[in-house]
Amino acid sequence: MPMSYESQEDLVLIIDDEETIRDGCRQVLEKSGYDVITTGDGSEGIRIAREQKPNLVFVDLNLPGMSGLEVIDILLADIPHIVLVVITGYASIVSAVESMKRGAYDYLPKPFTPDQLRAVTKRGLDHHALIIEAERLRAAQEEMARDFITFVSHEMRSPLMTVQQSLESLRVVAGDCLSDEANQIIERCEKRIRNLEDLVEHWLNIRQIEEGTLIRDKGILNIADILLHSMEDMAPLCEKRGIVLKSDIPEDLPAITGDRESLVRVFVNIIGNATKYTPAGGTISIRARHDDYHVHVAISDTGRGIPKDKIPFIFEPFYRVKERGEHIEGSGLGLTFCKRIMDAHAGKIEVSSEEGRGTTFNLRFPR
Amino acid sequence: MAEKRKILLIDDDRDFLMATKLILEKNGYEVLTAENGKAGVDAIRSASPDLAIVDMMMETWGEGFSVISEVRAMEGGKDLPLIILSGVDLQGPYQSFEPSEQFPRVDLILHKPVKADDLIKHVKALLG
Ligand SMILES: Nc1ncnc2c1ncn2[C@@H]1O[C@H](COP(=O)(O)OP(=O)(O)O)[C@@H](O)[C@H]1O
């Protein structure tokens, strides 16, 4: 449950070295029903603000010791949703503008009347309430999106798994009674269900990345390790398709930071694509190297390539280059997924390709 | 002929339950089913199966988890062979294959859908 802000008195902090101003403001604002704390000292003000989390702070720009601008910077960085109003002693527009640039919400030039003070205070607190409300809405939306994903993942995957298990049991129950034709029908069903499963999986993963729930635990990773692991996963498929899988991965690659599981999936996806679009007899090669700032991985194939005019779109969701009459399975989400994962690693993924000759995916990770 | 070994399946998806049941029956096992955690625990008490296969994704994974905790705590439940059959969403203590020690032990984790050959192989191994 979000904290209820309505029930809480609005707390206003006033940081000004002039005692008359402090006392005057306190009187006016307390009469209007606000809780008020005052101090004449910048660092004391910061300490109070950290502890009491006021909704609104008035900061005199002309403080002894610490500058008002410094106080503003620290408060804005430390206390989420805080609203700041600067009090400018020498009717100086320049300093007011500077503070607003840094994130102050409003300013109040001295001398000011009680009415002006009340108006600015009300405006500031309304603004604060608005920020809180927006924050609450955002959190609620996020929660809804998360629930939706859980819902979809259960409601879509469960039936898929059940259909797969039922086909499996059909085989077992029928035993030798099934004709070759009947077996082929089952296989076709299984293949299409697997595709649908992949699509759901990819789509969910992308939603999870968008929400930041997928790549949460980053660790120090040995990229050579991950590449070898991904290659092991894909070796049987390459063999089946008559494609040579080779690699040139130096042993002294520096470590990167990231999520192992999702990076394996990135490489498996890219190698998987290469197997789909490379005819038998072709080669997939994986190379890694590093420079002072990055670790680079290149995954090349000798396949059919991607037409130049299609290259800009291949990372877009659901985009697929389809040739007439061909039946290569895919969701069009694989590369979208890879791109999002790379973004989440502050990395880069780029493609270069020549039709009829092959394709290379270049991936770059910060080290 | 020796008596059939008894396997209890706990899963809230009736069709999935049926599919798995058929695979096991065809391979000579007697199969009991329960469609929720509580019925599952009751069945373990009353019918004393030789093995239980528990779906972790009933409503929340929590339900599968409480079934396992309860079975491990009950008399004679400490050594009952337990297989988790998880949907893809496996979360919580069994997310990794070696849950830390404070969680009740399971003998095996399998993922849905499970190949008939795999399932039978593991069941055989666990039932000795
Ligand atoms: N190695 C490759 N060689 C040729 N074309 C490729 C390769 N990798 C990706 N593509 C093209 O990019 C498109 C998008 O890829 P992707 O997002 O993984 O979806 P798909 O599921 O269709 O493979 C593919 O449909 C394919 O046309």
What features would you describe in this structure?
The complex is a heterodimer of chains A (367) and B (128). Chain A is an alpha/beta fold. Chain A folds into three domains: 129 residues, Response regulator (Rossmann fold); 56 residues, no CATH class; 148 residues, Heat Shock Protein 90 (2-Layer Sandwich). Helices cover 50% and strands 19% of the residues of chain A. Chain A contains nine helices and twelve strands. In chain A, the strands form three sheets. Chain A has a five-stranded parallel sheet, with helices on both faces. Chain B has 128 residues and is an alpha/beta fold. Chain B contains four helices and five strands, in the order E-H-E-H-E-H-E-E-H. Chain B is globular. In chain B, 38% of the residues are buried. The complex binds adenosine-5'-diphosphate. The site of adenosine-5'-diphosphate has 20 residues of chain A, from helix 8 and helix 9.
Global mean pLDDT of chain A:
89
User: What topology, given as strand order, has the largest sheet of chain B?
Assistant: 2-1-3-4-5
What is the number of beta strands of chain B? Answer: 5
Q: What is the average per-residue confidence, as pLDDT of chain B, rounded to a whole number? A: 85
List keywords for this structure.
heterodimer, A: 367 residues, alpha/beta, Rossmann fold, Heat Shock Protein 90, 5-stranded parallel sheet, 9 helices, 12 strands, 19% strand, elongated, disordered N terminus, B: 128 residues, 4 helices, 5 strands, 38% helix, globular, binds adenosine-5'-diphosphate
